[in-house]
Amino acid sequence: MNIAKITAQGDGVFTVAGDMNFTTINSLLAQSDTIFATTVPITLDLSAVQHANSAGLALLLEWQHQAQNKKQSLRICNPPKALIDIARISNCEKYL
């Protein structure tokens, strides 16, 4: 069973935990309303992500897009190596 969740840490900091893959991204996307409800700069801490694939990267790009549309600052920290590798191959590394 793949479980993924977003937890607010306060002051615009959110932790993403579990897997970021084809099975979990819809759940994570549904949970992300709380991320963009804040008016402070947003930090997504991915240090608790256990597994990630290209679906996880697509979700991060979607979150970047949402932040841009709402004129919010979004910082992604501690991405797993798999996401960095996929982003590098996809020429999207600057978004991490």
Q: How is the topology of this model organized?
A:
Blueprint: E1 4-10, E2 13-20, H1 25-31, E3 42-52, H2 54-69, E4 74-77, H3 81-89
Parallel strand pairs: 2-3, 3-4
Antiparallel strand pairs: 1-2
Question: Can you offer a commentary on this structure?
Answer:
- Strands 1-2-3-4 form a four-stranded mixed β-sheet, with helices on one face.
- With 96 residues, the protein is α/β, with parallel strands linked by helices.
- The protein has three helices and four strands; from the N terminus they run E-E-H-E-H-E-H.
- Strand 1 and strand 2 form a beta hairpin.
- The protein is 33% helix and 31% strand.
- The protein has one domain.
- The radius of gyration is 12 Å and the shape is globular.
Brief sketch in words of this structure:
By secondary structure, the protein is an alpha/beta fold.
Helix content: 25-40%
C-alpha end-to-end distance: 27 Å
Q: What does the overall shape look like?
A: globular
Portion in strands? 25-35%
Alpha carbon gyration radius: 12 Å
Count every helix, treating DSSP H or I runs of 4 or more residues as helices: 3
Q: Give me the strand/helix succession.
A: EEHEHEH
The unreliable regions are none
User: What number of structural domains do the residues give?
Assistant: 1
